[in-house]
Design goal:
The protein contains 21 helices and 31 strands. The protein is α/β, with parallel strands linked by helices.
Length: 666
């Protein structure tokens, strides 16, 4: 019997699942995600699933990992120092597509060189300037190279990479390897972000492979790409940016395997976010403009995913106004019930004292701790003092914040990932209502009791006790989730309603229609496709969401580990793209990695390019471990009518090589 191991690292939990021949789930397990070193949580989850299944490590023939590391690193501004070599562009082009902001002070060199639209050299590459810049020292851990029209002729990018390797020995990301599309600044941004991630992803993969070996698992490790396909660990090391949105993509693949749904919304609620995507004809919709992560729009192919700062661990805020109420997110807090598992004495003692007080304080039911093992270099004096004050203990928040400036310092420490704040979350509300019982329900109840006594604008208590407040929080989660799903539904409509999707979702007519409204006017609104609810919290909350939207809510068995399932049931898919242009009448130019090649006939040029792309895609798919590789190609030929005849302008060719990953047999 050969087993397949899937692992997903989420914001709160790392999930592991063992499957038999893609046919059934043998066992699943969870471990808390260890942010300072994700591999620790990976090892704990894998050890737990092995224990739950009774399987021997040697029975595992394939391991696959989906991870939020790349996404979170870019959102949080983390990653290694990267140097950008910008060939043939102007200094002012660094402002395009947020490239200068993305550099964030990292070194950049703009030099002469580059090519024209047809692939001819626009100017000689200034090798002397490049060598001088590198010799002077940049401090970069990796480099990105982007050349003008490099997708038409990559010669200068390839030459610059050779020089960087020769002088520094550091990794180099080439923009034309990451996208075949035009748009130099956007390609440069993609290459820069890739270079920034190289060291971080390589360390994770190395550590994860080490953990698997320590457990006796010798199977090859695959990684989930942002479009849901699998790539080898080595390919992920070279192109880590392709793993952005890896976790959400794996959830879509897992949802399809679990349900067989062809047309549906897939909503994955985690601790920090809710990720919503569309399944059409059994396949996830791909974002035509490239994956967006944080403020950056890249050229990476990834699922069209809308991410909302709403999850089981979302911060509960008091709503403004006389009537009170609550709102959720977008910041994630450690649930009080989870923090109490680590420091029960501190949490219970503080909550009991706060409950006895005449009136709750602003920082009551909140706690703080430093994240162990995190590098804390480069802190300003106030942040360093606050971090030292917190030390290695869990504290009530009011015991460490002494003035307003400390609040700002705390926010900066949280953004750096050095400190975590605990407070009331929907997860705590679920414990109070008996929906879940995995952490310290007593701490959750006391925390909600303290928060319920906060005064709203009218002077009344926020809620009459912890149960009432818990119900209020869950109702708010239902409302915000319904808004998120409606927004994705409107965004996926072909019709133009004249307003942005987020406005339409919250519009008074839409909200009244959920009732539905029956008066002189009849208004009905809702979703016309099923929703597949995924994530450990979906079973607790999503039944009410389906009722609110009047749609079928599918809550599959094993939906809590759908990401881990998706990590192992995907296929290896490699895409290669290129273009044929017509620089002159009767001349057709195929733009290849080795340089432009001219042909007398358009069909000959397209056939030659397709053959080269097919060979490249097949070779890379096989290098990724794919077996029974199938090749599919599509052409998009652009032409124009002139003087009664059809004139060839350009042809874009995309080749896809795909197959199941090879499974090692012990």
């Amino acid at each position: 019997m050969t087993l397949l191991l899937g692992v997903d690292t989420g914001g709160t939990y790392t999930d592991a699942v063992l499957m038999r021949d893609e046919a059934e789930v043998v066992a699943s397990a969870k471990a808390l995600t260890t942010k300072a070193d994700l591999a620790i949580g990976i090892g704990e989850a894998v050890a737990a699933v092995l224990a739950a299944s009774g399987a021997a490590p040697g029975e595992i023939g394939l391991a696959s990992l989906s991870t939020t590391l790349a996404t979170n690193a870019l959102v949080e501004g983390q990653g290694g120092r990267a140097g950008l070599v910008y060939i043939g562009f102007r200094e002012g082009d660094l402002a395009a597509h947020g490239l200068r902001e993305a550099l964030g002070g990292d070194p950049a060199l703009v030099i002469k060189g580059g090519h024209g639209h047809a692939g001819g050299e626009a100017a000689a590459l200034d090798e002397a300037a490049l060598r001088g810049w590198l010799a002077a020292g940049t401090g970069a851990e990796a480099y990105a190279v982007a050349g003008l029209f490099a997708t038409r002729n990559p010669a200068h990018e390839l030459r610059a990479a050779a020089i960087i390797h020769e002088v520094t020995g550091r990794p180099v990301s080439l923009s034309h390897h990451l996208s075949a599309k035009l748009g130099g600044p956007k390609r440069a941004l993609t290459a820069l972000l890739n270079a920034r991630l190289v060291g971080m992803i390589a360390r994770l993969i190395d550590r994860a492979e080490g953990k698997l070996r320590d457990l006796g698992i010798a199977a090859p490790l695959m990684v989930v790409r942002g479009d849901g396909a699998l790539i080898s660990a080595d390919q992920a090391r070279a192109r880590p940016i392709e793993t952005i949105l890896s976790g959400p993509a794996a959830s879509i693949v897992g949802a399809r395997w679990l349900t067989g749904a062809d047309h549906a919304l897939v909503s994955d609620i985690g601790g920090t976010t809710t990720d919503v995507a569309v399944l059409r004809d059994g396949r996830p919709a791909i974002d035509p403009e490239g994956a967006r992560v944080g403020p950056w729009r890249t050229m990476v192919e990834a699922v069209a995913m809308r991410t909302f700062g709403l999850g089981g661990d979302s911060e509960v805020h008091l709503a403004e106004g006389l009537g009170g109420g609550v709102r959720l997110g977008p910041r994630r807090l450690v649930p009080v019930s989870l923090m109490a598992l680590e420091a029960r004495g501190v949490v219970h003692e503080a909550l009991e004292a706060q409950a006895r007080a005449a009136a709750p304080g602003e920082m009551d039911a909140r706690f703080v701790r430093a994240v162990p093992g995190m590098e804390a270099g480069g802190l300003a004096e106030r942040e360093a003092m606050l971090l030292a004050r917190i030390g290695g203990e869990v504290w009530p928040l009011g015991a460490v914040l002494r003035n307003r400036m400390d609040h700002g310092a705390l926010d900066r420490l949280v953004r750096r990932g050095l400190v975590q704040v605990a407070g009331v979350t929907p997860s705590d509300a679920a414990h109070v209502l008996g929906k879940v019982a995995v952490w310290d329900g007593g701490a959750a109840r006391m925390a909600l009791e303290v928060l319920a006594r906060r005064r709203v604008g009218s002077g009344e208590w926020l809620a009459e006790g912890p149960e009432a407040l818990a119900a209020m929080i869950v109702e708010r989660l239902t409302h915000q989730t319904a808004l998120a799903l409606l927004e994705v539904g409107f965004a996926g409509e072909e019709a133009d309603f004249g307003l942005p999707p987020e406005v339409l979702a919250g519009h008074v007519l839409t909200q009244r229609g959920l009732g539905p409204h029956r008066g002189l006017v009849r208004i009905e609104a809702g979703l016309n496709v099923p929703v597949v609810g995924l994530g450990a919290a979906a079973a607790s909350y999503y039944g009410a969401v389906g009722a609110r939207l009047g749609c079928e809510m599918i809550l599959p068995a094993h939906g809590g580990v759908a990401n881990a399932i998706g990590a192992v049931v995907g296929r290896v898919v490699i895409r290669r793209a290129g273009v044929v242009t017509a620089p002159a009448e009767g001349r057709y130019r195929a733009h290849l990695e080795s340089g432009p090649v001219d042909f007398a006939e358009a069909e000959a040029a397209m056939a030659a390019l397709e053959a080269v792309l097919s060979a490249e895609a097949r070779a890379e798919a096989e290098a990724a471990g794919a077996v029974d590789v199938q090749i599919a190609a599509r052409r998009e030929v652009k032409g124009a009518e002139t003087e009664g005849r059809r004139v060839f302008i350009e042809a874009a060719i995309v080749v896809e090589a795909g197959g199941r990953p090879r499974v090692a047999v012990g």
